Amino acid sequence: MVDPASSFLGKMLLEEITPVVMVLRTPLVEEACLKNGLTFVQMLQPFCVFNNIDVPVRTVSDQPYRLHKFKLRLFYASDIKQPNVEAAEEHLKEVVTRAAEKDLSDLSSDPPQLDDLLAMNSESLPLWFKIFNKELIRTLSFSEHEAFDHPVACLLVVSSKDELPINKFVDLFNTNQLPSLLNDGVMDPKILKHYLLIHDNQDGSSEKATNVLTEMRSTFGMNDCRLLCINSAKDGSEERIGSLWTPYKTDTSPSQDLGCLLNVNDVSEIKDLMQDLSSKHIIPHMEQKIRVLNQQVSATRKGFRNQIKNLWWRKGKEDTPDAPNGPMYTFSSIESQIRVLGDYAFMLRDYELALSSCRLLSTDYKIDKSWKRYAGVQEMMALTYFMLDQSRKEAENCMENAFSTYLKIGSTGQRNATRCGLWWVEMLKAKEQYKEAAGVYFRISSEEPSLHAAVMLEQASFCYLFSNPPMLRKYGFHLVLAGNRYYMSDQKKHSIRTYRSALSVYKGNSWSFIKDHVHFHVGKWYAFLGIFDVAVKHMLEILACSHQSVMTQELFLKDFLQNVEKMGKTYEVFRLQLPIINMSSLKVVFEDYRTYASTAAANVRESLWQSLEEDMVHSLPMSRSNWLEPEAKSSKKDKDSNVCVVGEAIKMDIEFKNPLQIPISISGVSLICQLFPRSEVAECELTEKDAHAHPYESASGEKNDAEELRKLTSNWELNSGVSSFALSEVVFSMRGGETTVVQLTVTPKVEGVLKIIGVRWKLSDSVVSYYNFDSDHVKKKNIKGRKKSSQSSSKNLKFVVIKSVPKLEGCIRHLPGKIYAGDTRRLVLELKNQSDISVKNMKMKISHPRFVIPGSLEDLNVEFPSCLEKNSNSEHNDVQPSSSKQPKSSLFSFEDAAIQGGTTFFWPLWLRAAVPGRISLYLSLYYEMENLSSEMKYRIFRIHYDLEVLQSLDLSFQISPCPSKLQEFLVRMDVVNRTSSENLQLHQLSSVGHQWEISPLQPNEAICPLQLLKAGQALSCFFKLKNCRKSSMFEGSISFHSLLQGHDVRLGPQGSDKALFDVSGSALADFHHHERLQQGKSIQGQQGTVDFILISQLPKNRADHGLEGQSDLPQLFSHHSCHHSIASTSPVWWLMNGPRTVHHNFTVSFCEIRLGMAIHNSSKEAISIRMSTLDVTSSDGQLSDVAAAAQDPISSENQGGWHNVSLGNDIKVTSDALGTQFGKSSSDVMAPFVWAASSSTRVELEPMSTTEVPLKICVFAPGTYNLSNYTMHWEVKLLGVPLSAGDRTRQLSGRSPGHPYYITVLQSP
């Protein structure tokens, strides 16, 4: 802590708590002084402050001390009274208003920055704060309960021109002219008097004055009289000394010459007068007064006896009710004398005596319930503690007691509480307790009117700023409170100043509501002052107030537009936030070597197109330089730029968002661009580099924004008259909260380098906004210090414009948006070449060949769907049509086709909706330019369509071996119509491939005679499937046509003449190829599977249109079901041949029955087969399936053909007698039948060969028997050929149980 006397509070106390001298003068004295533009008191004031005085002082102690600084306060007797409340308030308002007028020039400057505020200290506060505080304290001058404002001496002044000067001196000290403090008995009227005679040298010699002085001394005493001669200067020849009075006369006009008649001798006399008055009269008088009072106090109050006596005398006063002002004390009362003693001691720097006196007095006032005097004593004790630099806690407690007591009194003590608070604040600030000081300021503000409260709150905010650490949030909040109070007091300039200072705290944080409040009111107050440009700047900050209510948003926008209108011109702003541009969604669509058929195709991810097109070019360019001719003079910037073509528009999708909940209108939306020759690229790069290296530095960024705005405005003005490119312009309206994507275009007309700089739009036809794209991307990356990464083509806004090259345009005709699954159609790819140059070497790749495949040129000239029907002249269905060919590869070439300039090209495509769902079709078409001198050698045309496929038919098949014939199967087809309203006619079912032949169960049986399958209806059909493969097929190569060529079954009434469709030599075959690939297996694999194709059509009487009103109805539906298995893991098939019923006379002998076992090898390798028969009896003498299974437990996975179904008891006895005969439970009973001949037979079978093994059984009793008690062992012979990778998991041996075969033996008559 600094020395208390050096602190602001110490200096204030040394100025404000000093002896008061009452001045009584005659009118002629004032007349002589006013010749210098000064009153008598003003003339003496510069000489009442003694900074180098050296006066010894001895109060009550024997040890004297010296005063080095001293001050007198001079007041006319008429001014020694408590100031008028209204006049005091008006004076304080004038102080604040003058401060606002001085700060008017700062209103148009930049608001203070936070760093500058943090660098401030308490010494840099505005000076008018101190002035206001002093003036506020002075409003309490000359109060009754305090003695430091009571006059210590009286200076009586008479002019030498007055008649009877001695009588004038006597008349001056008349009770009528004395202040009320003397007349009312508050202070002792016997005060020190000093008599002064004024002589004006302008009126003649001082001889008369000297005679009067002699008479005065004889009347009033030798030492108490003095003569002062003034106005000795002559005709302005003397040195000007008017600057001495300038600080003391605030209402001086610049032309007024203060002290014009006073010369150096006059000033010297005045100075000697005041010094003698203070050192030889006032200070000795106060010393004497202190000693006298101290003796009286010591005699009556000090000592134990006097204290007990005082307490006894005051006994009972505690029970008296409180009076508003407490009891009255005259100057002769001991309490008043103690207060005078304390105040005199304080003014003479004897703080110990002052403290002891106040302590003695504090108890008395408290017992007497004289609360105002008690608070005043507590206040003086706190100040004394402060000046003694002792007991900070005691000082604060005294101030707290004084402050609370003043407030307790009521309205009469509120202003005293304010003064107490100001002393208290300065005490805390001297100890650097700024946070606590701010709290006291806030307490003061709650007791004062709005204007005074505003000043207190502003000072409190600075205390929070000076706290350690700085409390910025409280600083800003109290500034806003102060600004609001200033506004209530009609001090708008002060409101603006405080609100602008608060913005430094709220800038860049998320305190949206208070930030909006500050900006809005600052803008409104600036507009009130007529400074509309600054008002609009503040209003701009709150336009995008999405967090505010609708009513508030309307108010903000309305006031903003009104202020813009009052400016009388179109207002231009940089990066207006209404609407907001979403830079992250910024998308640039341009066509270099990649062109697009639609916006949807341009919106597809580039990685998807690249994966589709990777086989179209030998080296697909991953960088932009691949399609440009390398030039030695081309800059690195060219290589990093996009490439576009003259006459082809560059489209930019910009997302605008209305952050408000109210509608807004936007007009004149257009891009801002530059186009310059390539030769000027290097110069432009250098200019941009220099601009980035030396940015316009500003703490707030406003200078940088102003420079960017200037550049954008200049570029836009150049755009308006340029003919090198064409710009589009968009007008639109936005509802509250709406987000709109606007597409803007720029079309270059000449070669060069085109740069998109930003975008321009107009809000409500009043405000023009410019937005610079570079400032949001490139500059931010450079500021962070990161290495600049290569931008994607959608973010890099610089384009190298090359000369015009051919560009194909086109579409797929007749492609519906919605389609049923299985719908097969012929489409047409239409391509137009609008340029004069031909294109050649066209290639095409389709993303979903399962859905779309290219046709041949001949398909354009045939009728659909009859072009897919079989040739009626063909004798056999399996004859290969001439048009059949291998399936097309993924990359389709248009052979030698070329598109001449200005012509249209057509090519057929086949569409089949393979599966339900939403399908995105992508088609890329590569073509080269006929003109090899072009910078771009080839281009790729990209087409994209979204297709919604609806459900139509659900198809499923079940295949089971035929129990009666080898290599024949039963097929069950289940069909469900899943459409919502369509009825479908089933036309034909085809088995695919040369190996299988499908046919009805009965040769002339009609399958699905109704033929019409209604919506939601299900149908099951049965067919017979026969294996037609021969062993010779494996010896040579298999043609693609033979693998796809199949057999067909007509579905419908018998005798129908509808032609069947060819599934092996048309687009259906290509679709089937892709369907097999999609369903998981190659067309050359797995010979044990079969594929089916179901073809259906709409009824002929269908009169309405297709989906969504489509005029072209679907004419053909094809459903492909692939890879249906017809084989087990065993390559061996067998079938037992023989009688089913035999009659025999068992009374003669047992029955012998001959059978045959046909065995077939279906594999490509030779197989060794061993058949073993089993003779096993059950407990009742009959063969049981369960027992056989237990005897020969074979895994069901090795079973082929029909599987065994347990019947519980395989032997069915037809006679009760016989049943009883074989019902004995004896273990040695003979079995009902046995296998005859060898129990094991081995055969070797070549690939795809069949043999028959003879068998015989002996039956001993009539009945029905299951001849499945045998096993079939097989093993593949590899003949030393090593296994391939795919055969290592294949089963090479196994054992299968016998198939059930039932035979009935009857007793013959």
Topology diagram in text:
Elements: H1 8-16, E1 20-25, H2 27-34, H3 40-44, E2 49-50, E3 55-57, E4 65-67, E5 70-71, E6 73-76, H4 85-102, H5 114-118, H6 127-138, E7 151-159, H7 165-172, H8 180-183, E8 192-200, H9 207-220, E9 225-230, H10 264-300, H11 304-313, H12 334-347, H13 351-368, H14 371-388, H15 392-409, H16 411-430, H17 434-445, H18 450-466, H19 472-488, H20 492-506, H21 512-528, H22 532-540, H23 550-567, E10 571-574, E11 580-581, E12 587-589, E13 594-596, H24 599-602, H25 606-613, H26 636-639, E14 642-645, E15 650-657, E16 664-676, H27 681-693, H28 702-720, E17 725-727, E18 730-734, E19 739-748, E20 752-763, E21 767-772, H29 773-783, E22 798-802, E23 808-813, E24 818-820, E25 824-833, E26 839-846, E27 852-854, E28 891-893, E29 904-912, E30 917-929, E31 938-950, E32 953-961, E33 968-977, E34 984-992, E35 996-1000, E36 1012-1013, E37 1018-1027, H30 1040-1044, E38 1047-1050, H31 1067-1078, E39 1089-1097, E40 1117-1125, E41 1132-1137, E42 1141-1144, E43 1151-1161, E44 1166-1173, H32 1185-1191, H33 1216-1221, E45 1233-1235, E46 1240-1245, E47 1250-1259, ...
Parallel strand pairs: 1-6, 1-7, 7-8, 8-9, 10-21, 13-31, 14-22, 24-31, 42-51
Antiparallel strand pairs: 2-5, 3-4, 11-15, 12-15, 15-19, 16-18, 16-20, 17-19, 20-21, 20-22, 23-25, 25-29, 26-28, 26-30, 27-29, 30-31, 32-33, 33-37, 34-36, 34-38, 34-39, 35-37, 39-40, 41-43, 43-47, 44-46, 44-49, 45-47, 48-51, 49-50
